[in-house]
């Protein structure tokens, strides 16, 4: 309760509370209701991204902003994986088609979010980490997804490199 009245923490407390509350319900929903679980993870990701964009990168960086960036980055990738599984599972797209579509979404989302919050590279680094998980999961099963996920990780890494001057200036 040390920072309960701190304005920097109050800015992110609402969206983080929503994301974490939905996340605790998601654990029970996911095994039996995939569509509801998919919508839930989208709500979790959306509210985490809202908190990420509100996070002050100068105040409490290592106890507030960076952990939110990591959480939002992981949920960005997890929401895409969940959506891809639903699209493929219900026959909307093939497994490969759904994976490729969601990789494109992750690239665009990660680029847009990182551009808006360049002083928190932890977000982009976490997305890269998640993409490398997709690479590892597909290396022997689906060469197309394996290669596309590797390229996606490189694109997100390239975006981070391009943002280095903005990270340093704090713009």
Describe this structure in words.
36% of the residues are buried. The chain has helices at residues 7-29, 34-54, 61-89, 95-116, 121-138, 143-162, 164-169. The chain has 171 residues and is mainly α. Helices cover 81% and strands 0% of the residues. The chain has one domain (7-169).
Task: Provide the fold topology.
Layout: H1 7-29, H2 34-54, H3 61-89, H4 95-116, H5 121-138, H6 143-162, H7 164-169
How many alpha or pi helices?
A: 7
Task: Indicate the radius of gyration in whole angstroms.
Answer: 17 Å
The percent of residues in helical segments reads: over 70%
Distance between the amino and carboxyl termini: 31 Å
Overall average pLDDT: 94
Count of domains: 1
Largest sheet: none
Beta strand % = under 5%
Structural class call reads: mainly alpha
Q: How many beta-strand runs?
A: 0
**Given the C-alpha coordinates, what overall shape results?**
flat
Output the helix-strand order: HHHHHHH
Spans with pLDDT under 50 lasting ≥5 residues?
none
């Amino acid at each position: 309760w040390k920072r309960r009245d701190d304005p920097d923490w109050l800015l992110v407390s609402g969206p983080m509370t929503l994301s974490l509350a939905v996340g605790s319900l998601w654990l029970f929903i996911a095994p039996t209701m995939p569509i509801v679980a998919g919508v839930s993870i989208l709500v979790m990701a959306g509210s985490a991204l809202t908190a990420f964009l509100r996070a002050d990168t100068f105040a409490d960086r290592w106890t507030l902003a960076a952990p939110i960036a990591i959480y939002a980055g992981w949920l960005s990738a997890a929401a895409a994986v969940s959506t891809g599984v639903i699209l493929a599972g219900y026959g909307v797209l093939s497994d490969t088609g759904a994976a490729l579509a969601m990789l494109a979404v992750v690239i665009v989302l990660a680029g847009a979010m990182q551009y808006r919050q360049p002083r928190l590279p932890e977000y982009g680094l976490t997305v890269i980490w998640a993409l490398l998980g997709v690479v590892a999961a597909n290396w022997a099963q689906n060469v197309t997804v394996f290669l596309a996920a590797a390229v996606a990780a490189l694109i997100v890494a390239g975006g981070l490199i391009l943002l280095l001057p903005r990270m340093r200036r704090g713009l």
